[in-house]
Backbone:
């Protein structure tokens, strides 16, 4: 790095040298002009970011193309050649690539001269030992740059020199390893045959020992054998690499090559060349058997194994179908399967993804050869570990199969399922499995069971990768196969049912049949998910479920050939027939009700299929569903509530809701989707009772009492690779089970220790047994010499038996209690999962029917779920329930664009609900929960404001003029302020008085922004708490509320101009009272109060300024000026910059400028004779006083006069007299300020108010400017010179009530006005009038 930097400093002199050698001075000036940009290219080239390097190289080439003959080219070549040998190893390839791009772009640069410059700059004979390594790499990267330019193979002279240089570099093996030889092979692989014949004798020794000594020499030999075989034969004679004596040496060379690419994880080129040579010479079997399987795999090492795996993947496209069995059924593929099974640790390297890429590339490249595709896929599937294939059930490579290969693969999977051929499998056992002594792990039945479970899951997973429309025949074949073997068995073959023509060679176990059934329903879910646009449609425009139902009906009708595993009863068969009849009727429905009919049809078909799985429950559901469908489709209009609540017969929608809840209780995602789809069509007919059935599920009290819906466990439905376990995994489970039993025993012992203190009955029983065996007497006896009390052997045995039976009973009791706890825990988990699924129905309701009055009944139940989940959200399931409920409540309910506009007679109930929600929001312990309750109340206010009852009131403003604004109830938009205001007034009072209130400022700001009329009613409460006995924290919150609420345009519309001005004056008086203690804060809450008060004051100033209000600011100015010194000292001591900034922001609004450096003035008070302007301008980096231009001496007395008021008013910062916003450096003479001041000295009150540094200025009047009314006469000030713009204005003395007895001028209290676009807020109305008159007199 140091070397690089030193070169960067020294090299820029090269352009100067070029100019001295004959270039024009203009070129030198141009180089100097662009030197910074030009030099930055070389720094960016060495950066590690690839995009930066490429961009810098491209810019450098563009720069040099514009100056091909200039000095820049010479400097660029010199700089890049120097960069080849820098100390940073990451920078060398960057400079090499840039040099290659440069030589490629400028072909007129001779390569020999560049190579000569490289050798001269990095001369291996002259470099020191410490710099030998960078010099070696510089020569190597230089040759590589010449080669990458693409010109080296065309220049024979440069090529020969480069080859000689690489041979020289190859001698330094300690530094460069095999890199020069690899570079030589890469270069020679690109040269023409004639050139290679000329160079070959110089680079390749005619010695087979040398050829088989390293991978690079062998690769060079293979290159020569491929391109110039005759020249090679002349040089070395006939050579047989695959002879018996050369095979061990080939194995050692390949192991060396495998070790060299260990980090790169790629296939060495020499291995692939050997494979091609073996195929070319017809010696592939010998190469694969002797070199690969018997050589590289004999002493297994993972680098050699990975080389074999990569060689296997690379050989697939090169082999014929006859050669594939040699590769796919040998020791290598078995070793690959063992690696797949054992490589389970997270940090262990797994070769499976890389092999998937090899197989995918092979299958994609040979779509025209389905035979080879099928052979490879079947071969990989046949690699099994005790019957279980090592590949996962979901394999993405299958998507590249051609249609014939896919059909053949599905047929092979079906055949292996029905008649497993264990001999055709490449089966193996791991070392742990071989050590196991359990004979049951090696029986064929176990292998067949494991194989069948995997095969059925692979059949289902194939459907995930298929296109439904193109591969419909394959999908139907798989679906029929899974359905048939799930619920039927063949009795007699028939051609009408192809599934009956093949029999099982091994009987199908019940557990395997359960897996097949679960896979079938998973297949239905897959088909439903794939067909989103046309759900589950087939070629004949029928759902997949309908097609399967018709297939099931045909199976039921062929009772001679097929038998159902669970035969239907007469009632169940009638339910099946009625279901088919209802489906046909639904097909004939009108187009208007087609969507609802399709949803009901889907529900009927799905429950009909479930009739084979659970006949009793599904039979009852089918009857209820058919009744509900008839009533639903027969309804012309929506039922009224009186008809819906018929006590004689429950409405159909309630019955259907109960059915959907029962379906949701099943752990089937397909059932969940169907229930959601059906409910979206019936939610418009929902009744309060039906909604209550859904809400009862979310209520833990009612849900615990009513067990109408039984939640089932989903352990049988889980298909997530439960059967993809090897036997060593089962051994681990067995050992884990033993450990669990040991842990259980430890837990039991701990529970016994705990129960010993509680279970008094067990202690009494234990004492009774001990007394009966006289054990207590022997222990408690004090006569040690009496041996007659000792127990005999028989008594001890009896006592042991009694104790053992007693402890066994106690252990059973403990286990029973533990089982009961586990049962309760599992029930809780299932109940929470059921509640999460039921939330789907609520989400559908608020999404599809947001304007229904029933939506209003969801608020409090959802809030109860959120409140309970917030308190007990310890598990992930509880968090999922909370997140989903909160999402539905916030996004789908409160933030919905549509809401109920017809509440009817529910207005009074809604107002009571608003009051209840606001009260509950104030009682919560957590502010997050309180926010949900507060938002619910805001949602109800939105409903009340926009309901139909308020529309006649809202039409009145439309008839008025455009400029009129609604007031009172009209502005409320349907809200009854007499009911709402007390609710939020009490909540606001509680928020501003309670110590730990869950309510926040953000909540009330949201209320104020949505309902400004309500904000107007609540503002007196907030203003009341700005001062008074309230806590400082509450006063700060009140100020913050006012600060955020006052600038809103909606609130301003609710006030008339006099009311608004009175409100601002009232708030200003409260804030002024707060500011009397400014700078005296001791606690954090008091500091927050000060910050909030100043922030509110600045907001008031902006409001007064923008609206040109007439407000008396005398009091607040006096209070702020009295606190200046204390705040300045506090800012210096404590560093409270935020408070100080807010203070001077307010003072600037009042026309008082902030001093430049307050800390400096506090330390050094300027003398009377010193110019205040020059004192303040003493800053670091400015000219000293001795270097400044002297002013005329005639202005000296005036300067002294102008300095006296500054010394008299030390508490007011002196004015600089310059315009900061224009950044002028010329100062206004202080003498002009002194001349413009009135001759008589100001009174004490006026001096305290205005200060000496604020000269008066008459602002220019604006058009349509409202002049403020001023009471009292104005003091006459001297006329200002025309055309002279003053930097600051003096506060008008007439605006201050004269309290000083020495003042002879009559003074009255003046009302000061905020002037627009003026540095001072204290402007006199009389002065503005005079200014207007003066402007009018001017021609």
Residues:
């Amino acid at each position: 790095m140091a070397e690089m930097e030193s070169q960067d400093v020294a090299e820029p002199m090269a352009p100067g040298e070029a100019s001295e050698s004959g270039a024009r001075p203009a070129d030198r000036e141009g180089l100097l002009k662009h030197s910074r940009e030009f030099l930055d290219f070389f720094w960016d080239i060495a950066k590690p970011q690839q995009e930066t390097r490429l961009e810098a190289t491209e810019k450098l080439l563009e720069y040099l193309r514009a100056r091909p003959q200039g000095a820049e080219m010479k400097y660029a070549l010199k700089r890049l050649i120097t960069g080849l040998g820098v100390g940073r190893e990451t920078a060398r390839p960057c400079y090499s690539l840039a040099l290659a791009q440069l030589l490629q772009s400028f072909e007129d640069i001779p390569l020999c001269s560049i190579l000569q410059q490289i050798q001269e700059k990095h001369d291996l004979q002259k470099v020191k030992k410490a710099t030998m390594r960078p010099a070696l790499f510089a020569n190597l990267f230089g040759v590589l740059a010449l080669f990458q330019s693409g010109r080296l193979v065309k220049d024979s002279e440069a090529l020969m020199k480069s080859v000689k240089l690489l041979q020289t570099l190859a001698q330094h093996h300690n530094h460069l390893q095999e890199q020069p030889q690899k570079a030589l092979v890469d270069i020679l692989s690109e040269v023409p045959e004639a050139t290679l014949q000329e160079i070959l004798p110089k680079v390749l020794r005619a010695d087979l020992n040398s050829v088989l000594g390293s991978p690079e020499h062998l690769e060079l030999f293979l290159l020569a054998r491929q391109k110039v075989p005759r020249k090679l034969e002349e040089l070395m004679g006939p050579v047989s690499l695959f002879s018996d004596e050369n095979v061990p040496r080939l194995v050692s060379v390949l192991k060396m090559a495998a070790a060299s690419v260990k980090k790169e994880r790629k296939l060495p080129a020499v291995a692939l060349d050997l494979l091609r040579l073996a195929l070319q010479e017809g010696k592939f079997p010998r190469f694969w058997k002797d070199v690969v399987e018997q050589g590289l795999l004999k002493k297994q090492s993972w680098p050699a194994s990975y080389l074999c795996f990569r060689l296997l993947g690379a050989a697939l496209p090169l082999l014929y179908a006859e050669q594939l069995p040699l590769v796919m059924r040998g020791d290598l593929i078995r070793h690959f399967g063992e690696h797949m099974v054992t490589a389970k640790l997270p940090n262990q390297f797994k070769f499976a993804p890389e092999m998937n890429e090899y197989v995918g590339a092979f299958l994609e490249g040979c779509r025209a050869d389905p035979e080879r595709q099928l052979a490879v896929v079947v071969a990989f599937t046949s690699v099994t570990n005790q019957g279980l294939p090592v590949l996962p059930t979901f394999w993405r490579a299958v998507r590249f199969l051609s249609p014939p290969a896919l059909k053949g693969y599905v047929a092979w999977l079906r055949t292996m399922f029905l008649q497993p051929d264990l001999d055709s499998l490449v089966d193996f056992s791991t070392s742990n499995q071989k050590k196991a002594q359990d004979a049951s792990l090696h029986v064929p039945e176990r292998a067949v069971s494991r194989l069948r479970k995997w095969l059925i899951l692979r059949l289902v997973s194939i459907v995930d990768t298929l296109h439904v429309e193109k591969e419909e025949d394959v999908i139907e074949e798989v679906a029929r196969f899974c359905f048939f073997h799930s619920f039927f068995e063949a009795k007699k073959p028939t051609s009408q049912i192809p599934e009956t023509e093949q029999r099982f060679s091994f009987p199908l176990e019940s557990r395997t049949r359960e897996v097949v059934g679960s896979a079938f329903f998973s297949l239905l879910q897959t088909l439903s998910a794939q067909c989103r646009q046309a759900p589950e449609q087939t070629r004949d425009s029928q759902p997949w479920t309908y097609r399967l139902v018709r297939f099931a009906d045909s199976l039921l009708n062929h009772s001679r050939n097929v038998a159902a595993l669970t035969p239907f009863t007469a009632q169940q068969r009638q339910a099946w027939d009625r279901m088919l009849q209802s489906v046909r009727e639904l097909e004939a429905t009108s187009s208007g009700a087609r969507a609802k009919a399709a949803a009901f049809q889907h529900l009927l078909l799905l429950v009909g299929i479930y009739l084979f799985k659970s006949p009793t429950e599904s039979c009852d559901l089918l009857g209820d569903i058919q009744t509900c469908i008839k009533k639903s489709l027969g309804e012309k209009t929506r039922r009224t509530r009186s008809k819906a609540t018929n006590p004689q017969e429950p409405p159909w929608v309630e019955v259907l809701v109960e059915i959907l809840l029962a379906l949701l209780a099943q752990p089937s995602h397909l059932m969940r989707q169907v229930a959601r789809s059906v409910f979206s069509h019936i939610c418009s007919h929902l009744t309060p009772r039906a909604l209550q059935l859904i809400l009862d599920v979310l209520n833990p009290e009612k849900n615990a009492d009513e067990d109408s819906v039984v939640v089932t466990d989903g352990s049988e439905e889980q298909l997530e690779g439960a059967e993809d376990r090897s036997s060593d995994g089962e051994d681990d489970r067995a050992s884990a089970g033993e450990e669990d039993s040991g842990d259980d025993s430890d837990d039991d012992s701990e529970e016994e220790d705990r129960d010993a203190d509680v279970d008094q009955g067990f202690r009494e029983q234990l004492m009774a047994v001990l007394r009966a065996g006289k054990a207590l007497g022997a222990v408690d006896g004090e006569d040690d010499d009496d041996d007659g009390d000792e127990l005999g052997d028989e008594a001890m045995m009896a006592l042991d038996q009694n104790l053992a039976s007693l402890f066994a009973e106690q252990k059973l009791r403990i286990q029973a209690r533990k089982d009961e706890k586990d049962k309760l825990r599992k029930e809780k988990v299932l109940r929470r999962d059921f509640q999460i699924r039921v939330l789907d129905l609520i989400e559908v309701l608020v999404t599809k029917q947001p304007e229904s009055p029933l939506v209003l009944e969801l608020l409090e139940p959802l809030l109860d779920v959120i409140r309970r989940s917030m308190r007990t959200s310890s598990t992930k399931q509880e968090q999922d329930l909370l997140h989903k409920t909160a999402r539905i409540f916030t996004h789908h309910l409160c933030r919905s664009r549509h809401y109920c506009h017809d509440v009817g007679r529910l207005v009074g109930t809604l107002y009571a609900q608003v009051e209840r929600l606001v009260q509950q929001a104030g009682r919560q312990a957590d502010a997050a929960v309180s926010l949900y309750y507060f938002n619910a109340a805001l949602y109800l206010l939105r409903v009340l404001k926009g309901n139909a009852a308020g529309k006649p009131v809202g039409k009145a403003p439309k008839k008025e003029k455009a400029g009129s604004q609604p007031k009172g109830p009209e502005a409320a938009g349907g809200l009854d302020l007499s009911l709402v205001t007390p609710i939020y007034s009490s909540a606001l009072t509680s928020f501003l008085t309670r110590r730990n209130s869950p309510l926040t400022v953000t909540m009330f700001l949201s209320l104020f922004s949505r309902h400004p009329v309500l904000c107007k009613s609540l503002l007196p409460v907030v203003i009341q708490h700005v001062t008074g006995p309230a806590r400082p924290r509450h006063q700060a919150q009140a100020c913050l509320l006012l600060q955020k609420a006052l600038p809103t345009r909606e609130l301003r519309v609710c006030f008339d101009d006099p009311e608004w001005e009175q409100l601002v004056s009232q708030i200003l008086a409260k804030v002024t009272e707060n500011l009397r203690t400014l700078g005296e804060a001791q606690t954090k809450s008091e500091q927050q109060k000060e910050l909030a008060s100043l922030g509110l004051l600045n907001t008031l100033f902006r409001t007064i300024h923008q609206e040109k209000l007439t407000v008396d600011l005398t009091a607040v100015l006096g209070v702020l000026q009295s606190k200046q010194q204390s705040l300045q000292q506090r800012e210096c001591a404590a560093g409270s910059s935020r408070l100080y900034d807010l203070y001077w922001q307010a003072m600037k609004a009042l026309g008082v400028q902030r001093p430049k450096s307050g800390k400096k003035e506090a330390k050094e008070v300027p003398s009377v004779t010193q110019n205040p302007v020059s004192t303040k301008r003493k800053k670091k980096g400015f000219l000293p006083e001795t270097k400044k231009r002297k002013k005329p001496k005639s202005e000296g007395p005036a300067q002294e006069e102008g300095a006296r008021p500054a010394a008299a008013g030390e508490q007011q910062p002196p004015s600089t007299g310059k315009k900061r916003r224009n950044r002028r450096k010329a100062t206004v003479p202080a003498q002009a300020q002194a001349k413009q001041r009135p001759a008589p000295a100001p009174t004490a009150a006026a001096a305290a108010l205005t200060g000496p540094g604020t000269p008066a200025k008459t602002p220019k009047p604006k058009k349509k400017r409202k002049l403020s009314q001023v009471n009292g006469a104005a003091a006459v000030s001297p006329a200002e010179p025309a055309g002279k713009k003053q930097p600051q204005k003096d506060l008008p003395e007439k605006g201050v009530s004269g309290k000083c007895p020495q003042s002879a001028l009559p003074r009255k209290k003046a009302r000061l006005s905020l002037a627009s676009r003026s540095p001072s807020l204290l402007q006199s109305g009389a002065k503005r009038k005079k200014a207007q008159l003066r402007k009018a007199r001017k021609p």
Observations:
- Residues 487 and 1169 are 112 Å apart (CA to CA).
- The chain is about 60% helix and 0% strand.
